[in-house]
Specification:
The complex is a heterodimer of chains A (119) and B (110). With 119 residues, chain A is mainly β. In chain A, 0% of the residues lie in helices and 48% in strands. Chain A has no helices and eleven strands. In chain A, strands 2, 4, 5, 6, 9, 10 and 11 form a seven-stranded mixed sheet that branches. Chain A has a four-stranded antiparallel sheet with strand order 1-3-8-7, with no helix packed on it. In chain A, 38% of the residues are buried. Chain B is mainly β and 110 residues long. In chain B, 0% of the residues lie in helices and 47% in strands. Chain B contains no helices and ten strands. In chain B, strands 1, 3, 4, 5, 8, 9 and 10 form a seven-stranded mixed sheet that branches. The chains are: A mainly beta (119), B mainly beta (110). At the A-B interface, β5 of A face β4, β8 and β9 of B.
């Protein structure tokens, strides 16, 4: 069973940089794409980005200018950075395992991290 | 359009059949996926590749596809099925791919 643990700062001020990391217990880490997805309070899911162990990435076009995603194969960790946050970035952020190909399904999810942006 | 459209809400009585549709051009040539999300929990994938049930998901959940629409059917709805349901596919029109989600459907069991 794949386990995903997430951590990072939960309270930010406007203009700061959001930084989250997730660690994965999955022997097949390098066989899958890994993703960040967010959900504003009371709203739907929004995909942020995906990364493959090789470093290949895809980003949501609406967030691409502010998002950076990276992977540390040796630690089986992936990280998310979102710059210049505003209140609109307040959301629960999820780390999720994708498929063996780009932009497929999400079969394992982290517990989610609530990030609140407030002055 | 490369959006996925779902009804905001569906209501059924226990034991009845609930059907939730998801429509969008992407579904004409790409698979649809379905997630169930209960309050305070992460989403759970219940259907993948249009009609394949994920491991451990009850048989009353099924998926189907026709043209640009995928449908999630819950036969013999139970109170525990009350949740938000999201469909998902992808936009692969450009060199940079992206994932798209439907807006979600709240299933209420009366």
């Amino acid at each position: 069973q794949v386990q995903i643990q997430q951590w990072g700062a939960g309270l930010l001020k406007p203009s700061e940089t959001l930084s989250l990391t997730c660690g994965v217990s999955d022997e097949s880490f390098s066989h899958f794409y890994w993703n960040w997805i967010r959900q504003p309070p009371g709203k739907g899911l929004e995909w942020i980005a995906e990364i493959y162990y090789s470093g290949r990435t895809n980003y949501n076009p609406s967030l691409k200018s502010r998002v950076s995603i990276s992977v540390d194969m040796s630690r089986k960790q992936l990280s998310l950075k979102l710059t210049s946050v505003t209140a609109a970035d307040t959301a629960v952020y999820y780390c999720a395992r994708g498929g063996g190909k780009s932009v497929e399904r999400f079969d394992f999810w982290g517990q989610g991290t609530l990030v609140t942006v407030s002055s | 359009s490369y959006e996925l459209t779902q009804p905001p809400s569906v209501s059924v009585s226990p034991g009845q059949t609930a059907r939730i549709t998801c429509s969008g051009d992407a579904l004409s040539n790409l698979y649809g996926y379905w997630y169930q999300q209960k309050p305070g929990q992460a989403p759970v994938m219940i259907i993948y590749k249009d009609n394949k049930r994920s491991s451990g998901i009850p048989e009353r959940f099924s998926g189907s596809s026709s043209g640009t629409t995928v449908t999630l059917t819950i036969s013999g709805v139970q109170a525990e099925d009350e949740a938000d349901y999201y469909c998902q596919s992808a936009d692969t029109r450009h060199t940079s791919y992206s994932v798209i989600f439907g807006g979600g459907t709240k299933l209420t069991v009366l």
